[in-house]
Amino acid sequence: MKFVLNSSFPKSPASLACISGLARQLHNLGHSAIVGDWSNYSKYDVAIILSRDVDFQAIKSSNPDILIGLADPKSVNDKQVREADFLLVSSIEQREAFMSLNRNQFIYYMIPDFESSPVQHSVKERYRILYHGNKVHLNSSYHGLVPALNALGRKYPIQLDAVYNYKQLGLWTHGRPDPILCPTHDLQWYPNCYATYFGSADIGVVQNLMPFNNMSLVRKLGTVSRSLLLENSFDHLVKYKSSANAGRAFVFGYFGIPVVADATPSTCEAIIDGYSGRLVLTDNGWYDALEELICSPQKRSLYAANFRDSISQRFAPDISAARLVSYINGYSQKALVTPQRIQPPIIPELLRSMIRRLEAKLRP
Protein backbone atom coordinates (compact mmCIF):
# COMPACT_ATOMS: atom_id res chain seq x y z
CA MET A 1 0.00 0.00 0.00
CA LYS A 2 1.20 3.52 -0.78
CA PHE A 3 0.80 6.16 1.93
CA VAL A 4 1.50 9.87 1.92
CA LEU A 5 1.61 11.65 5.29
CA ASN A 6 1.59 15.46 5.37
CA SER A 7 1.64 17.90 8.28
CA SER A 8 1.59 21.68 8.51
CA PHE A 9 2.99 21.37 12.04
CA PRO A 10 5.91 18.91 11.63
CA LYS A 11 7.44 19.61 15.07
CA SER A 12 4.22 19.29 17.06
CA PRO A 13 3.85 16.27 19.37
CA ALA A 14 0.87 15.01 17.36
CA SER A 15 2.83 15.22 14.12
CA LEU A 16 5.88 13.48 15.57
CA ALA A 17 3.63 10.61 16.62
CA CYS A 18 1.05 10.18 13.87
CA ILE A 19 2.85 11.60 10.81
CA SER A 20 6.62 11.04 10.88
CA GLY A 21 6.38 8.36 13.57
CA LEU A 22 3.55 6.52 11.82
CA ALA A 23 5.46 6.71 8.51
CA ARG A 24 8.36 4.81 10.07
CA GLN A 25 6.04 2.14 11.41
CA LEU A 26 4.29 1.72 8.05
CA HIS A 27 7.68 1.41 6.34
CA ASN A 28 8.68 -1.29 8.86
CA LEU A 29 5.49 -3.15 7.95
CA GLY A 30 6.53 -3.17 4.28
CA HIS A 31 4.43 -0.31 2.95
CA SER A 32 5.49 2.77 1.02
CA ALA A 33 5.19 5.80 3.33
CA ILE A 34 6.24 9.21 2.02
CA VAL A 35 6.24 12.30 4.25
CA GLY A 36 5.79 15.79 2.82
CA ASP A 37 4.48 15.27 -0.73
CA TRP A 38 1.76 17.89 -1.11
CA SER A 39 1.37 17.76 -4.90
CA ASN A 40 1.15 14.16 -6.13
CA TYR A 41 -1.87 12.66 -4.42
CA SER A 42 -2.69 10.69 -7.58
CA LYS A 43 0.26 8.38 -6.77
CA TYR A 44 -1.07 7.14 -3.42
CA ASP A 45 -3.71 4.85 -1.95
CA VAL A 46 -4.01 6.62 1.42
CA ALA A 47 -3.33 10.21 2.50
CA ILE A 48 -3.05 11.06 6.21
CA ILE A 49 -3.08 14.80 6.74
CA LEU A 50 -2.54 17.02 9.77
CA SER A 51 -3.44 20.48 8.47
CA ARG A 52 -6.28 22.97 8.61
CA ASP A 53 -5.72 24.37 5.12
CA VAL A 54 -5.84 21.36 2.77
CA ASP A 55 -8.82 21.07 0.40
CA PHE A 56 -9.93 17.45 0.57
CA GLN A 57 -12.31 17.84 -2.38
CA ALA A 58 -9.40 18.95 -4.56
CA ILE A 59 -7.44 15.84 -3.55
CA LYS A 60 -10.42 13.63 -4.40
CA SER A 61 -10.78 15.27 -7.81
CA SER A 62 -7.20 14.27 -8.64
CA ASN A 63 -7.60 10.75 -7.24
CA PRO A 64 -11.19 9.59 -6.58
CA ASP A 65 -9.97 6.27 -5.12
CA ILE A 66 -7.66 7.71 -2.47
CA LEU A 67 -8.66 7.38 1.19
CA ILE A 68 -8.10 10.58 3.18
CA GLY A 69 -7.51 10.42 6.91
CA LEU A 70 -7.58 13.61 8.97
CA ALA A 71 -5.13 13.31 11.86
CA ASP A 72 -5.77 14.89 15.27
CA PRO A 73 -8.98 16.77 14.29
CA LYS A 74 -9.91 20.00 16.04
CA SER A 75 -13.19 21.89 16.32
CA VAL A 76 -11.88 24.66 14.05
CA ASN A 77 -11.79 22.35 11.00
CA ASP A 78 -15.31 20.89 10.99
CA LYS A 79 -15.48 21.00 7.17
CA GLN A 80 -12.46 18.71 6.90
CA VAL A 81 -13.88 16.47 9.63
CA ARG A 82 -17.04 15.95 7.57
CA GLU A 83 -15.19 15.43 4.28
CA ALA A 84 -12.45 13.06 5.47
CA ASP A 85 -12.91 9.36 4.77
CA PHE A 86 -11.78 8.67 8.33
CA LEU A 87 -10.39 10.45 11.37
CA LEU A 88 -7.16 9.46 13.09
CA VAL A 89 -7.90 10.33 16.72
CA SER A 90 -5.85 9.84 19.87
CA SER A 91 -8.45 8.67 22.36
CA ILE A 92 -12.01 7.73 23.23
CA GLU A 93 -12.56 11.35 24.30
CA GLN A 94 -11.52 12.75 20.92
CA ARG A 95 -13.47 10.09 19.04
CA GLU A 96 -16.72 10.91 20.85
CA ALA A 97 -16.26 14.65 20.37
CA PHE A 98 -16.48 14.23 16.59
CA MET A 99 -18.89 11.30 16.34
CA SER A 100 -21.75 13.58 15.26
CA LEU A 101 -19.69 14.79 12.28
CA ASN A 102 -17.93 11.60 11.14
CA ARG A 103 -18.42 8.03 12.38
CA ASN A 104 -15.40 6.65 10.52
CA GLN A 105 -12.70 6.89 13.16
CA PHE A 106 -9.58 5.03 14.19
CA ILE A 107 -7.85 5.46 17.55
CA TYR A 108 -4.09 5.71 17.04
CA TYR A 109 -2.27 5.93 20.37
CA MET A 110 0.05 8.86 19.76
CA ILE A 111 3.38 7.83 21.26
CA PRO A 112 6.46 9.68 19.95
CA ASP A 113 9.65 7.90 18.91
CA PHE A 114 12.43 8.22 21.51
CA GLU A 115 15.21 6.32 23.25
CA SER A 116 14.45 5.11 26.79
CA SER A 117 15.76 2.94 29.59
CA PRO A 118 13.87 2.00 32.79
CA VAL A 119 14.50 3.93 36.00
CA GLN A 120 15.82 1.95 39.00
CA HIS A 121 13.66 2.79 42.01
CA SER A 122 14.98 3.10 45.55
CA VAL A 123 14.58 5.05 48.78
CA LYS A 124 15.53 8.68 48.13
CA GLU A 125 16.54 11.73 50.13
CA ARG A 126 14.16 13.73 47.92
CA TYR A 127 11.43 12.39 45.64
CA ARG A 128 11.17 13.87 42.17
CA ILE A 129 7.60 14.06 40.84
CA LEU A 130 7.55 14.80 37.10
CA TYR A 131 4.91 16.40 34.87
CA HIS A 132 5.21 16.87 31.12
CA GLY A 133 2.67 18.25 28.69
CA ASN A 134 0.62 21.37 28.09
CA LYS A 135 0.56 24.43 30.33
CA VAL A 136 -3.26 24.19 30.29
CA HIS A 137 -3.12 21.16 32.58
CA LEU A 138 -0.72 22.92 34.94
CA ASN A 139 -3.12 25.86 35.17
CA SER A 140 -5.90 23.38 36.04
CA SER A 141 -3.93 21.46 38.65
CA TYR A 142 -4.83 23.77 41.56
CA HIS A 143 -8.06 21.75 41.70
CA GLY A 144 -6.56 18.36 42.67
CA LEU A 145 -2.84 17.79 42.24
CA VAL A 146 -1.40 20.94 43.83
CA PRO A 147 -3.31 20.73 47.17
CA ALA A 148 -2.09 17.14 47.46
CA LEU A 149 1.51 18.17 46.78
CA ASN A 150 1.34 20.90 49.40
CA ALA A 151 0.00 18.44 51.96
CA LEU A 152 2.60 15.80 51.05
CA GLY A 153 5.35 18.41 51.32
CA ARG A 154 4.63 18.77 55.02
CA LYS A 155 5.53 15.11 55.52
CA TYR A 156 7.95 14.07 52.75
CA PRO A 157 10.87 15.72 50.91
CA ILE A 158 9.40 16.19 47.41
CA GLN A 159 9.79 18.42 44.40
CA LEU A 160 7.77 18.89 41.22
CA ASP A 161 9.53 19.20 37.86
CA ALA A 162 7.21 20.54 35.15
CA VAL A 163 8.23 20.03 31.52
CA TYR A 164 6.30 22.30 29.15
CA ASN A 165 6.92 24.92 26.49
CA TYR A 166 7.28 27.94 28.75
CA LYS A 167 9.36 29.88 26.20
CA GLN A 168 6.33 30.00 23.92
CA LEU A 169 3.48 29.91 26.45
CA GLY A 170 5.02 31.79 29.37
CA LEU A 171 5.83 30.54 32.86
CA TRP A 172 3.22 28.73 34.89
CA THR A 173 2.06 31.11 37.64
CA HIS A 174 -1.57 30.11 38.27
CA GLY A 175 -1.95 28.00 41.42
CA ARG A 176 1.61 26.65 41.72
CA PRO A 177 2.61 24.54 44.75
CA ASP A 178 3.94 26.30 47.83
CA PRO A 179 7.66 26.79 47.06
CA ILE A 180 8.66 25.77 50.58
CA LEU A 181 6.48 22.66 50.79
CA CYS A 182 7.05 21.50 47.21
CA PRO A 183 9.80 23.31 45.27
CA THR A 184 8.82 23.45 41.60
CA HIS A 185 11.17 23.65 38.62
CA ASP A 186 10.14 24.75 35.12
CA LEU A 187 11.87 22.71 32.41
CA GLN A 188 11.69 23.72 28.75
CA TRP A 189 10.03 21.16 26.47
CA TYR A 190 11.56 20.38 23.09
CA PRO A 191 11.10 17.46 20.69
CA ASN A 192 12.57 14.26 22.12
CA CYS A 193 13.54 15.90 25.41
CA TYR A 194 12.56 12.82 27.37
CA ALA A 195 16.00 11.27 27.80
CA THR A 196 17.21 14.54 29.35
CA TYR A 197 14.45 14.92 31.94
CA PHE A 198 13.03 11.49 32.75
CA GLY A 199 16.05 9.50 33.89
CA SER A 200 15.93 10.38 37.61
CA ALA A 201 12.16 10.79 38.11
CA ASP A 202 10.36 8.76 40.76
CA ILE A 203 6.68 9.32 39.91
CA GLY A 204 4.92 10.68 36.83
CA VAL A 205 1.71 12.70 37.12
CA VAL A 206 -0.90 13.05 34.37
CA GLN A 207 -3.35 15.80 35.28
CA ASN A 208 -6.39 15.84 32.96
CA LEU A 209 -9.41 17.16 34.84
CA MET A 210 -10.39 20.80 34.48
CA PRO A 211 -11.98 22.69 37.39
CA PHE A 212 -15.40 24.31 37.52
CA ASN A 213 -15.66 27.93 38.55
CA ASN A 214 -17.84 28.10 41.69
CA MET A 215 -18.50 24.39 42.20
CA SER A 216 -21.40 24.94 44.61
CA LEU A 217 -23.26 27.08 42.06
CA VAL A 218 -22.60 24.54 39.29
CA ARG A 219 -24.06 21.81 41.49
CA LYS A 220 -27.19 23.84 42.23
CA LEU A 221 -27.77 24.84 38.60
CA GLY A 222 -26.93 21.37 37.31
CA THR A 223 -29.31 19.48 39.59
CA VAL A 224 -32.08 17.73 37.64
CA SER A 225 -33.90 15.78 40.33
CA ARG A 226 -32.81 14.64 43.77
CA SER A 227 -35.67 12.15 43.95
CA LEU A 228 -35.66 10.84 40.36
CA LEU A 229 -31.89 10.61 39.88
CA LEU A 230 -30.84 10.45 43.55
CA GLU A 231 -28.47 13.38 43.07
CA ASN A 232 -26.45 14.49 46.08
CA SER A 233 -23.26 16.27 47.03
CA PHE A 234 -21.22 13.06 46.76
CA ASP A 235 -21.76 12.84 43.00
CA HIS A 236 -18.68 13.48 40.87
CA LEU A 237 -18.64 16.40 38.46
CA VAL A 238 -15.98 15.64 35.86
CA LYS A 239 -14.78 17.96 33.10
CA TYR A 240 -11.89 17.40 30.68
CA LYS A 241 -10.67 18.47 27.25
CA SER A 242 -12.20 16.76 24.21
CA SER A 243 -8.67 15.96 23.06
CA ALA A 244 -7.65 14.31 26.36
CA ASN A 245 -5.59 11.16 25.84
CA ALA A 246 -3.15 8.84 27.57
CA GLY A 247 -0.10 9.86 25.54
CA ARG A 248 1.63 11.59 28.43
CA ALA A 249 1.18 8.48 30.57
CA PHE A 250 2.66 6.21 27.90
CA VAL A 251 5.93 8.15 27.83
CA PHE A 252 6.39 7.57 31.57
CA GLY A 253 5.72 3.89 30.98
CA TYR A 254 8.66 3.54 28.60
CA PHE A 255 10.99 4.95 31.26
CA GLY A 256 9.70 2.66 33.98
CA ILE A 257 8.18 5.56 35.92
CA PRO A 258 4.92 4.74 37.75
CA VAL A 259 1.99 6.99 36.87
CA VAL A 260 -0.73 8.67 38.89
CA ALA A 261 -3.41 10.04 36.56
CA ASP A 262 -6.79 11.69 36.68
CA ALA A 263 -9.39 9.06 35.78
CA THR A 264 -10.56 10.05 32.31
CA PRO A 265 -11.75 7.46 29.73
CA SER A 266 -8.38 7.12 28.00
CA THR A 267 -6.32 6.81 31.19
CA CYS A 268 -8.79 4.23 32.50
CA GLU A 269 -8.32 2.32 29.25
CA ALA A 270 -4.53 2.42 29.60
CA ILE A 271 -4.02 1.94 33.37
CA ILE A 272 -5.40 -0.68 35.74
CA ASP A 273 -5.67 1.01 39.12
CA GLY A 274 -3.48 -0.64 41.73
CA TYR A 275 -1.77 -2.84 39.13
CA SER A 276 -0.15 -0.68 36.45
CA GLY A 277 -0.59 2.74 38.08
CA ARG A 278 -3.09 4.74 40.08
CA LEU A 279 -6.26 6.53 38.94
CA VAL A 280 -7.74 9.38 40.98
CA LEU A 281 -10.48 12.01 40.90
CA THR A 282 -9.91 14.21 43.97
CA ASP A 283 -7.15 15.97 45.88
CA ASN A 284 -7.42 13.29 48.58
CA GLY A 285 -7.10 10.65 45.89
CA TRP A 286 -3.93 12.33 44.60
CA TYR A 287 -2.51 12.43 48.12
CA ASP A 288 -3.25 8.76 48.76
CA ALA A 289 -1.78 7.55 45.46
CA LEU A 290 1.35 9.69 45.64
CA GLU A 291 2.02 8.75 49.26
CA GLU A 292 1.71 5.05 48.41
CA LEU A 293 4.38 5.38 45.73
CA ILE A 294 6.66 7.65 47.75
CA CYS A 295 6.72 5.11 50.58
CA SER A 296 7.30 2.02 48.45
CA PRO A 297 10.05 1.68 45.84
CA GLN A 298 8.79 -1.88 45.35
CA LYS A 299 5.36 -0.65 44.25
CA ARG A 300 6.95 1.99 42.03
CA SER A 301 8.91 -0.74 40.27
CA LEU A 302 5.97 -3.14 40.08
CA TYR A 303 3.42 -0.64 38.73
CA ALA A 304 5.94 0.66 36.19
CA ALA A 305 6.86 -2.83 34.97
CA ASN A 306 3.21 -3.82 34.58
CA PHE A 307 2.45 -0.63 32.67
CA ARG A 308 5.40 -1.07 30.34
CA ASP A 309 4.29 -4.64 29.56
CA SER A 310 0.76 -3.40 28.83
CA ILE A 311 2.06 -0.74 26.46
CA SER A 312 4.14 -3.23 24.49
CA GLN A 313 1.17 -5.58 24.14
CA ARG A 314 -1.66 -3.12 23.39
CA PHE A 315 -0.63 0.47 22.72
CA ALA A 316 2.87 0.64 21.18
CA PRO A 317 3.24 2.37 17.77
CA ASP A 318 3.97 -0.88 15.90
CA ILE A 319 0.77 -2.39 17.32
CA SER A 320 -1.28 0.71 16.40
CA ALA A 321 0.19 0.86 12.88
CA ALA A 322 -0.64 -2.79 12.22
CA ARG A 323 -4.19 -2.20 13.46
CA LEU A 324 -4.47 0.84 11.19
CA VAL A 325 -3.45 -1.19 8.13
CA SER A 326 -6.12 -3.78 9.01
CA TYR A 327 -8.67 -1.00 9.44
CA ILE A 328 -7.86 0.44 6.02
CA ASN A 329 -7.90 -2.98 4.33
CA GLY A 330 -11.37 -3.59 5.72
CA TYR A 331 -12.54 0.00 5.34
CA SER A 332 -16.26 0.44 4.90
CA GLN A 333 -17.85 3.91 4.90
CA LYS A 334 -20.28 4.41 7.77
CA ALA A 335 -23.22 6.67 7.08
CA LEU A 336 -23.79 9.58 9.43
CA VAL A 337 -26.85 9.23 11.65
CA THR A 338 -28.58 11.65 13.99
CA PRO A 339 -30.14 9.78 16.94
CA GLN A 340 -33.35 11.31 18.18
CA ARG A 341 -32.88 12.93 21.56
CA ILE A 342 -35.19 11.75 24.31
CA GLN A 343 -36.40 14.55 26.57
CA PRO A 344 -38.91 13.27 29.11
CA PRO A 345 -40.79 16.02 30.96
CA ILE A 346 -38.84 16.69 34.12
CA ILE A 347 -40.80 19.70 35.43
CA PRO A 348 -43.71 17.63 36.86
CA GLU A 349 -41.23 15.41 38.71
CA LEU A 350 -39.44 18.45 40.11
CA LEU A 351 -42.76 19.90 41.30
CA ARG A 352 -43.73 16.62 42.94
CA SER A 353 -40.34 16.49 44.65
CA MET A 354 -40.76 20.04 45.97
CA ILE A 355 -44.26 19.24 47.25
CA ARG A 356 -43.01 16.11 49.04
CA ARG A 357 -40.21 18.06 50.74
CA LEU A 358 -42.66 20.81 51.76
CA GLU A 359 -45.13 18.26 53.15
CA ALA A 360 -42.32 16.62 55.14
CA LYS A 361 -41.42 19.95 56.74
CA LEU A 362 -45.07 20.71 57.63
CA ARG A 363 -45.76 17.21 58.96
CA PRO A 364 -46.19 17.30 62.79
Distinctive features:
364 residues, alpha/beta, Rossmann fold, 2 domains, 12 strands, 15% strand
Task: Describe this entry's structure for a reader.
The chain contains 15 helices and twelve strands. It has 364 residues and is an alpha/beta fold. The chain has two domains: 2-111 and 317-329, 3-Layer(aba) Sandwich (Rossmann fold), CATH 3.40.50; 127-315, 3-Layer(aba) Sandwich (Rossmann fold). The strands form two sheets. The protein has a six-stranded parallel beta sheet. The chain has a six-stranded parallel beta sheet with strand order 9-8-7-10-11-12, sandwiched between helices. Helix 1 links the parallel strand 1 and strand 2. The protein is globular and about 80 Å long. The mean pLDDT is 93.
